[in-house]
What does this fold into?
Amino acid sequence: MPSLPTDVQVRNWQELQSELYQGAWQDDLQRFRSPFVFRGVSNANLSLETTLTRLGQGYEKRERSLLRNFRKYAHRSAVNVDSLWNWMALAQHHGLPTRLLDWTFSPYVALHFATADGDQWSTPSAIWCVNCLKVKRYLPAILRRALRDEDSDVLTIEMLDRAAPTLTKLESLSRSHFMAFFEPPSLDERIVNQSALFSVISNASESVTEWLSAHPDLFHRIIVPPHLKGEVRDKLDQANINERVLLPGLDGLTQWLTRYYSPRNTLNRGEGRIRSQQAKR
It folds into this structure.
């Protein structure tokens, strides 16, 4: 993926911190409240792809079959309310291909996923920063109204259930394609610890990268160079931003220990076999 006009290059830890919190001060609140949501990718050359698009040609035709069969075979107690958006959030959380994409309110969580994969340490990483306040301008009127009524910046499962109980209804809300952010239910500690939210694109055939690129006022990317990744990782580990916390359970614990005790020179050469949960995101 070529560099984007909105790319911001950083050279050191201080510049990285400054960019991660750029625009966070809100005069009306007199507080630091960033309008951005974040997604960290270990290779800046890759575009944003949903797990559904990774299925290849004709993927959009398989979406409903995937969800229908997931609902059919999953345990009925897996969701509290039998709704499309509860099932879709659960499916995405457990790795089923969907049109959803994982994001976080935390710039440090995004930075973790941008630097956790030792195989990618020889390539630049990227932090996608999307202004979720500005994204609201492109939402259909019914979704903007729901956010206004609830005094919220991102949608909830309940709001989506009322406005678009089916994917067909979602796609019919607007003639123009749109992207919306919503908070999933607290399915487990991973959702909570990662300060997670999802984006949903109104049409499964629409590329998230292409949609954002058509609206350059909504986003920018912070490019983390290879020489900075080692310092970033060490400082994130000291700040307790690691797999043990973000991926609770034995799998996350072993991932953290394997990476933490791997020789630095092995990681720098891109020869490590450390795999984060990035592939599932």
